């Protein structure tokens, strides 16, 4: 019997019984449909993997009910009967695993990525998506009401167990509900009753077409977190009305594009950040209430249910990172769950850049259909991995899983490389969670890590590898700037500081405005130091997701941190620097430390020795070329699977 007895107890939703209280929430993953918007094998296998993983309920994200409401270009479309055959195929693939399978019905409104946007009022979205939407006429509103009902019926005809209406996150229904986006003076605007009319009409149309026995849930905001947006009092007023109308459940979330609390928060936000909203709504209704928001630990999910704060818990990024999260949680194997880092890079940033969704810690996302019939190699190899950073560890894990004999040699006394240092700065401890997971996986697959060991003749003669993977990472580059090496200020690198090999003074200049420079500025400001950050580029933290960067930039709005962009350094002086920032001259004086955090140089000290002795040497990660963790992890696993 699982220790999580509440989380893994059945739940009744309408006439549907789910085996546990974990819902894989709808996420716009932006892959897995053909040119007509019909789902294909890529999306089918993505969902099948998560059904196998044991989630009780699961939702297809971004099912567009009308061409004007297609949020992203590569999402399932529901506005024509031609979608039904492929949906039936997906339902058939998922059905054997017992997961209750549904579709989220949505219309993006002004938050859609195309030029034919419509909305209650011609007001552009406050962030992310550009362009003024066309104001809907009343006949067009009636058409959309019908579109929701027709789309829901197609989902039922395809065999889905339920549907969820997306009334949250600043999409069309939320736009009608919110004064921020609805300035109408007719029967669909003004009073609370009028602003609710669109949602209630389309809900009734769905019920009429699909029947009262077909469960229809609603995702709603408990708070918009934006001026003139929905507040909790509005949600508490709306929730009993939806229950009376026959809603099967309420799924309570928060935020819109441009809100002060993001819909998909990064690692800087506390776990369970929206639970209080669901808890308040639950007190106002008797139907099941689902909560969401950084609920990463299954023991937290268990506590939420046990304490009556919600009836079920929605997981998004956690089951992208590890499809087996539910099965592992039920077995009590919490340490085996591959952890979401909350970086928002593959799952949201890529999608908003109109690229296919992915995951930093799980390169298999979107490739499940390619890997489902993967076979182990006929012959096991003796393989040496040089470097126990994330790239080396990720490659070694897959190699060992595929049956190869793998040894890692690591020059330092610890694994993790520069990622271990990145986890030391404020708010970013979850970065280190993936290192802990990889370490445990290597122990499970009996991969030996030899610390304080370089790739020299001794270990090469002992192991005699058939293949060598060089994953020795990178170190900060030393730029050539006038006066830099003559200054009286202490000269350090970001890795020196985070490894505690050097202690900065009280007034610090940081050269570099990427992620490393920004988190270092936060780290030093937290210690009470005055920081001036010089970024030679036009934008800060370009390699970060916009969601992650948003919270970090908010943290850096401190008196003791000054950020300069478009910097052209003229010279470093004895105690400062002269430069132009955005074309304006600036002189800094009275500083005692310069920290280099701009570019990284690949470390390949052992490359020539290895190439002289072995024919098969593969270079991966930052050793090949400094890049993001997502690209490093993906490349590491890809090379490991090729052997």
Structure characterization notes:
This protein is an alpha/beta fold and 643 residues long. The protein has three domains: 11-370, Aldolase class I (TIM Barrel); 380-475 and 602-642, NAD(P)-binding Rossmann-like Domain (Rossmann fold, 3-Layer(aba) Sandwich), CATH 3.40.50; 479-598, FAD/NAD(P)-binding domain, CATH 3.50.50. It is 32% helix and 19% strand. It has 21 helices and 27 strands. Strands 3-4-5-8-9-10-11-12 form an eight-stranded parallel beta barrel, surrounded by six helices. A five-stranded parallel β-sheet has the order 15-14-13-16-27, sandwiched between helices. The chain has a five-stranded parallel β-sheet with strand order 18-25-19-20-21. Helix 13 (390-401) packs parallel to helix 15 (433-444), helix 13 packs parallel to helix 21 and helix 18 (515-526) packs parallel to helix 19 (546-555). The longest helix is centred in the first third of the chain and has 21 residues, at 138-158. The radius of gyration is 27 Å and the shape is globular. The two termini are 40 Å apart.
Mean pLDDT: 95
| Major sheet: arrangement of strands | 3-4-5-8-9-10-11-12
Question: CATH homologous superfamily of the largest domain, by name?
Answer: Aldolase class I
Name the poorly predicted regions.
Answer: none
Structural class: alpha/beta
Q: How many structural domains in the coordinates?
A: 3
- Count the E strands: 27
């Amino acid at each position: 019997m699982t220790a999580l007895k509440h989380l893994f107890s059945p739940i009744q939703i309408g006439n549907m019984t789910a085996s546990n209280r974990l819902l894989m929430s709808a996420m716009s993953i932006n892959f897995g449909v053909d040119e007509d918007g019909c789902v294909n094998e890529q999306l089918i296998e993505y969902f099948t993997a998560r059904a196998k993983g044991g989630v009780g309920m699961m939702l297809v994200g971004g099912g567009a009910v009308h061409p004007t409401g297609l949020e992203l270009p590569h999402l399932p479309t529901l506005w024509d009967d031609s979608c039904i055959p492929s949906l039936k195929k997906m339902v058939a693939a998922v059905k054997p695993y017992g997961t209750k399978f549904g579709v989220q019905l949505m219309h993006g409104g002004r938050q859609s990525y195309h030029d034919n946007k419509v909305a209650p009022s011609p007001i552009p979205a406050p962030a992310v998506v550009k362009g003024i939407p066309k104001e809907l006429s009343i006949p067009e509103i009636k058409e959309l009401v019908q579109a929701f009902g027709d789309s829901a019926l197609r989902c039922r005809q395809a065999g889905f167990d339920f549907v969820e209406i997306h009334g949250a996150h600043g999409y069309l229904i939320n736009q009608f509900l919110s004064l921020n986006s609805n300035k109408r003076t007719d029967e669909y605007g003004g009073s609370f009753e009028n602003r609710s009319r669109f949602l209630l009409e389309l809900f009734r149309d769905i019920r009429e077409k699909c029947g009262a026995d077909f469960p229809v849930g609603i995702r709603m905001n408990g708070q918009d977190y934006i001026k003139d947006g929905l507040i909790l009092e509005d949600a508490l007023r709306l929730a009993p009305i939806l229950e009376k109308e026959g809603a099967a459940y309420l799924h309570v979330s928060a935020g819109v594009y441009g809100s002060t609390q993001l819909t998909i928060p990064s690692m800087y936000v506390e776990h369970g950040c929206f639970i209080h909203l669901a808890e308040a709504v639950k007190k106002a209704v008797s139907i099941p209430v689902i909560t969401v928001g950084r609920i990463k630990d299954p023991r937290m999910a268990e506590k939420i249910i046990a304490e009556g704060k919600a009836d079920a818990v929605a997981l998004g990024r956690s089951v992208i990172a590890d499809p087996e999260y539910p099965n592992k949680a039920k077995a009590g194997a919490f340490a085996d769950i591959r952890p979401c880092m909350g970086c928002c890079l593959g799952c949201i940033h890529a999608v908003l850049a109109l690229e296919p969704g992915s995951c930093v810690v799980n390169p298999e996302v979107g490739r499940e259909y390619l890997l489902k019939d993967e076979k182990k190699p006929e012959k096991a190899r003796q393989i040496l991995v040089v470097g126990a950073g994330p790239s080396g560890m990720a490659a070694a894990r897959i190699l060992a899983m595929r049956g190869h004999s793998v040894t890692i040699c690591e020059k330092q006394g610890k694994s993790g490389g520069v990622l271990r240092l990145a986890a030391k700065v404020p708010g970013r401890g979850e970065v280190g969670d993936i290192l802990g997971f990889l370490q445990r996986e290597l122990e499970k697959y009996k991969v030996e890590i030899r610390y304080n060991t370089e790739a020299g003749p001794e270990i090469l003669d002992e192991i005699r590898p058939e293949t060598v993977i060089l994953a020795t990472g990178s170190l900060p580059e030393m730029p050539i700037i006038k006066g830099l090496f003559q200054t009286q200020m202490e000269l350090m690198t970001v890795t020196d500081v985070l490894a505690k090999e050097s202690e900065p003074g009280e007034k610090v200049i940081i050269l570099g405005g990427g992620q490393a420079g920004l988190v270092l500025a936060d780290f030093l400001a937290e210690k009470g130091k005055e920081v001036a950050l010089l970024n030679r580029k036009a934008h800060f933290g370009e390699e970060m997701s916009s969601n992650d960067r948003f919270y970090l930039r908010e943290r850096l709005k401190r008196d003791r941190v000054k950020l300069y962009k478009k910097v052209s350094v003229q010279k470093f002086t004895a105690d400062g620097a002269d430069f132009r920032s955005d074309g304006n001259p600036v002189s800094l004086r009275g500083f005692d430390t310069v920290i280099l955090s701009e570019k990284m140089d690949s470390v390949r000290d052992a490359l020539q020795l290895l190439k002289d002795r072995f024919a098969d040497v593969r270079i991966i990660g930052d050793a090949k070329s400094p890049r993001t963790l997502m690209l490093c992890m993906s490349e590491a696993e890809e090379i490991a699977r090729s052997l």
